[in-house]
Structure formats: structure tokens, C-alpha cells
Amino acid sequence: MDKWFGQQAVYRVSMGNFLFFGCMSLAMLGVKHRGDKRDAYLHHGHPLAKLGLWLLFTCLPFLFPNEVLNVYSWAARVGSGVFLIIQMIILLDFVQCWNDSWAANGEEDPRWLYALMGLTVCGYAGTLTLAGLMYAWFKPAGAGSCSLNIGLITLTLLLVVAFSGLSLAPLARQGSIFPSAAIGLYAAYLCFSALQSEPRDYACNGLGHSLTAASGGTLALGMLVTLASVVYAAFRAGSNTALFTLDGSEDGEGPGGARQALLADVEGTSAGLDGVPDVAEATREAVTGGAPKPDAAAVARAEAMAPVSYNYSFFHLIFALASMYIAMLMTGWGSVAQDKDRIDVGWASVWVKLGAQWVTGLLYMWTLLAPALFPDRDFS
């Protein structure tokens, strides 16, 4: 009964956060320019008013009947899956950008390439080391064959070998070994995290047997780490207009390019048509010794029309989904068997993490194969 009430409390707080950030996301729809009042007054301004609204939304779900919370708990499972997929896309983009940046720098200074190769070796070494530790920790002596754990660890290694080999194949036009090493290490970590989430009374969870019930400080530290990763994911996703833009833009039409074009229009002269210089402008420059200063009002108008640097609506949507994801972590993905003194422990957490591992690997292999399968499309 205590576990049920604990889950209900988590769901209600999570639902309050979801409603707050969801309403903020809806309110930010269509904000494209800095001059929009919603930018100054709602997104960047009035922090105390937003704090009051957040507290109101957090308390509101405690008035809802249990039927509403049951519907939200199932919706949170779907929203958490979407959040995990977005995190995977962010990771793939980050690793690929890292590889491209260092490889480009290596054309001028080969030390960048040596550093990239060193990180690649470290990535594969970390993957093999973690796999060895998992074979030792999750097949303890006297626990039987532990075929499930052994099979999951072996499948992880086979997945790493598969996409590493694919990245070196001629078919993968944009393949590189460093992203494979980084994704391989992440896949090994997901496998470790999944096996560590097995119930503590499971005979093959040797690591779990050596751990006592988590203390309050340990739980607090775990939640802080989780929240930090969620906040980073939200900022990364919300500000990455290249990955998650809702409007789409061609080259030169992004926020920076549009702003520069607007300021260029303001700071430009009134030169005559067809390249004929403006006589009045030339005279004024001769007298003052330089070009005239742009009009302050015109500059302010240009700044107001400058595009926002990221999608505000999507930014708040990420936090709404993150609220669902944290609720799933704290309730063991809705499992009644979740211990109240442990976070993210249970078979539901195990299979969610393993699913995330395979989706990440398949997504990465798709990024390697897609340019060859669809040569007419631009995947840059």
C-alpha cells in the first residue's frame, strides 16, 4: 500500500510539471522573432510569476481522481520513450560533429588525428573492460548458468562488432571508426545499467547482492545526476535548430544569417540603382570622414525582427517529456514491485534500457547506410 501511495505522489508531481511545461510549449508556439512579447515577458522574463505558476501546476494534480493519474501513467510511458529516442539522436549528432570537427582540424595539424585515434582506442578498451566486468559481476559463482545475462552481454559485443565493421565498409560513405567506438562504449554502458537494474534478489545479479539499500545521500546524488543529464539533453535538443527545427531553413536562412542580413540592410547605404553611387552620401562621408552611423531606431527594429536562436516551444516540450521520464525512473516504469528505497530497479527498467541500446545501435547503422541507399538525398 505504501508503494502504491508513493507511486501516486510521484505521478501527481510529474503530471504537474508536465502540465506546466506543456502549457509553456503551447504558449511559445509561433515565436520566431526576438521582438515577440512572449520572448521578453514569458520565456526570458518574470521568473517569480513562472515560479508561482509552477507551484500551482504542481499542486493541482493532487486534486485529480485516481483514474486521471492512471491515464497519465500510461501516457508517461509513451512520452518517456520519445524522450529516450531524442536523447539517442542527440548522442549520435554530438559524436558525429565531434569526429568531423577534429578530422577537419587534423588537415592542418595531425595532432588532432592522433588525439582522435587515441580516443578511439580508449573507447574500445573501455567497452572490452566493461564487458569483462559484466561477465564477472553478473554471473557470480554458484548462481548457475545465468544464460540470460551472458547472452545479453554477448549480444552487446556482437552489436558493437557489427556497426564497427559496417563503419569501415565501402558501403558506409560517411563511416568513421571514432563514432563507432563512442557508440560502442555507450551500448556497453546501457547493458551494464540494464543488468544492474535487475531485482536485488535475482541470483545472477552479483553486483546487486553486494549493495545495501540505498541511503538518502546516494538517492539524492543519483537524482541530481539524472536531473543534470535531463537538463543537458533539454538544452541540447532545444537549441539544436539543425536537428530539431520545426520550420526548416535553407543555407543562409538560419537565425545567424537572417540577423546579419537584417543588420546589413540597416547599416547599408542608400547607394543609387544599378551601382551608381549616391552623391549626397558621398558628400556626407567626405565631410564627416566616414560612413554615417546607423539610426538607433532602425537598429532596434532590426534586432526585434532578428530570429530567436532556438525553438522555444520545442525547448519546453523536451522538459515536459523529461518530467514523464523522471517519473518512470522513480517508479520502475510503473512496476508495483519497485522498491520505495531504490530508483530504477526492476525488470521493466531492464528491458527499457536494453531496448534503448538496440534502437541506438540500429539508428547508428541507419546513418551509415542511408547515404548509400538514397544517393539523391542530402544527409549532411
Automatic annotation (TrEMBL):
Which InterPro entries does this UniProt record tie to the protein? TDE1/TMS
Q: Where in the cell is it found?
A: Membrane
Record's keyword annotation contains Transmembrane: yes
| UniProt keyword terms in alphabetical order | Membrane, Transmembrane, Transmembrane helix
Q: How does it sit in the membrane?
A: Multi-pass membrane protein
Show the GO cellular component annotation of the record: membrane
Which residues span the membrane? 12-31, 51-68, 74-92, 113-138, 150-169, 176-195, 215-235, 314-336, 356-374
Say which domain of life the source belongs to.
Eukaryota
Give the matching PANTHER family. Answer: SERINE INCORPORATOR, SERINE INCORPORATOR, ISOFORM F
Homology family: Belongs to the TDE1 family.
The name on file for this protein is Serine incorporator
Supply the source organism for this entry: Chlamydomonas incerta
